[in-house]
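Please fill in the sequence for the structure shown.

STRUCTURE ENCODING:
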């Protein structure tokens, strides 16, 4: 092979900028996870067997089998957006594909590494769904010439180990928040079709039902193992709820032009999503955080201000800004601690775990 040909081959294999962005691991970006496969293999769903079978029947029916198909009459290039909107929408799409593909990788690994037929079946179905979601987003990213190399991402992105219960808490929230985010945007587009600046929003209605069903799966897994919802585990649940809400709030405020294009105030949007997620989570979590508490909202605003200042210091660089960033980190930790100590709203868990996506 000639030097020129070898160089061209190596260059062709280099990940593009979008793939590298998806590979990043920060506090605000989706991560890839691995877990204890033996513990997953030992999970027993017999306490909720009837509801479990009903859910498996839904997965088997595969209502969205042909949903994620881009029609021939939509093969035009939809990348011609104003610069700011283009940047923020691409960031939204890359974050979404990373999150969807993260679920696909985790679920597929669990399926391959367990013998438990219930777990193998469940995670096989969820891996199928998430693969469709990620592939569908990638179809649209190709319009922008920046499709993510999912194979490279699988090999190169760092994996974070989480115990199964942490996977349950975090992924349950991720799936239910995914539903709340997509359905809130879809309802806005439904009322104001002129705001649909990209066709992908038209798929959000049925798409978010997949997210909802995935969340139902983790709700059943937790309710089948009630110790995961009691004692010191309540503290872990509170941590994950607050971490997910705070991350979402900070990240969404960095997309003002996208929200403006959708005629959605990003703060109102986030609190709508929080409210939907809190209502849904009553099926499994023994409490909800008080999102209407002025102190809760003040803490989120403080975290946003800290994140903005930290980003500015990182961009400017230098020793002084490095010292400032240490201070910002301490301030963020102290603010999150204040957020964590706020009172929550306790409630009884319902006898029937299952919910329908009616928001």
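FILLED IN BY: designer on duty
SEQUENCE:
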């Amino acid at each position: 092979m000639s030097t020129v040909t070898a160089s061209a081959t190596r260059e062709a294999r280099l990940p593009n900028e979008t793939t590298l962005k998806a590979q990043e691991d920060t506090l605000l970006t989706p991560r890839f996870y691995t877990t204890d496969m033996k513990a997953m293999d030992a999970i027993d769903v017999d306490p909720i067997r009837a509801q479990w079978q009903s859910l498996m029947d839904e997965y088997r029916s595969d209502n969205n089998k042909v949903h994620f198909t881009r029609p021939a009459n939509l093969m035009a290039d939809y990348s011609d957006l104003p610069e700011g909107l283009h940047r923020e929408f691409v960031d939204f799409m890359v974050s979404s594909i990373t999150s969807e593909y993260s679920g696909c990788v985790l679920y597929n690994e669990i399926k391959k590494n367990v013998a438990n037929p219930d777990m193998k079946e469940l995670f096989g179905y969820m891996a199928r769904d998430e693969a469709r979601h990620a592939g569908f987003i990638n179809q649209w990213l190709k319009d922008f010439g920046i499709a993510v190399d999912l194979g490279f991402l699988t090999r190169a992105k760092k994996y974070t180990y989480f115990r199964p219960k942490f996977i349950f808490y975090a992924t349950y929230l991720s799936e239910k928040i995914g539903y709340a985010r997509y359905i809130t945007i879809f309802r806005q587009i439904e009322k104001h079709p002129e705001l649909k600046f990209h066709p992908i929003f038209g798929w959000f209605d049925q798409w978010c039902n997949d997210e909802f069903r995935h969340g139902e799966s983790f709700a059943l897994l937790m309710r089948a193992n009630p110790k995961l919802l009691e004692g010191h585990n309540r503290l872990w649940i509170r941590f994950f709820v607050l971490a997910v809400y705070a991350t979402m709030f900070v990240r969404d405020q960095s997309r003002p032009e996208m929200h403006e294009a959708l005629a959605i105030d990003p703060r109102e949007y986030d609190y709508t999503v929080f409210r939907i997620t809190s209502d849904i989570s009553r099926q499994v979590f023994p409490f909800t955080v008080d999102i209407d508490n002025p102190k809760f909202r003040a803490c989120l605003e403080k975290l946003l201000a800290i994140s903005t200042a930290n980003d500015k210091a990182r961009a400017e660089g230098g020793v002084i800004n490095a010292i400032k960033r240490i201070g910002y980190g301490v301030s963020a930790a102290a603010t999150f601690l204040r957020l964590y100590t706020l009172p929550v709203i306790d409630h009884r868990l319902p006898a029937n775990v299952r919910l329908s996506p009616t928001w």
